[in-house]
Amino acid sequence: QVQLVESGGGLVQPGGSLRLSCITSGNIRDINAMGWYRQAPGKQRELVADMPSGGITYYADSVKGRFIISRDNAKNTVHLQMNSLKPEDTAVYYCSANLWVAGGLRDYWGQGTQVTVSS
Questions:
Q1: What is the DSSP string of 50-118?
Q2: Phi and psi angles of residue 53, each rounded to the nearest 5 degrees, phi first
Q3: Under a CB-based contact definition with an 8 Å cutoff, are residues 97 and 108 in contact?
Q4: For a 10 Å CB count at each end of the chain, is N or C smaller?
Q5: pLDDT tens per residue, range 68-90
Q6: How many CB atoms lie within 10 A of CB 35?
Q7: Are 92 and 38 in contact (CB under 8 A)?
Q8: Distance in angstroms (rounded) separating the CA atoms of residues 69 and 102
Q9: pLDDT band at residue 3 using 50, 70 and 90 as cut-offs
Q10: Average pLDDT of the segment spanning 81-106
């Protein structure tokens, strides 16, 4: 059973920073891509950043220059360093992983972690 567990969310003032982490565990053969989505109240879930293996890292325009995604493949983890946070970054952030498992290529999600940017 594959699990994704996020950590690092919380309350931060505008202009502050947070670092989200996501640890993947289970019977994983390889990682195709890992990334982060977010969903604000009343809005659709949106892709924030994605880091495919051997591919081009993607950032949403709204976070370019402020957020940095990184992976530690040895530990099957992905991080999201969020700087210069704005109130509009407030959302539940979800880790996503596209993984090679015994049954083929599958998508997995974490449970979500709340990020609130407010003074």
A1: EEETTS--EE-TTTTTTEEEEEEGGGTEEEEEE-S--GGG-EEEEEEEEEEETTEEEEEE---EEEEE-
A2: -70, 120
A3: yes
A4: N
A5: 999 998 899 999 999 999 999 99
A6: 22
A7: yes
A8: 27
A9: very high
A10: 96
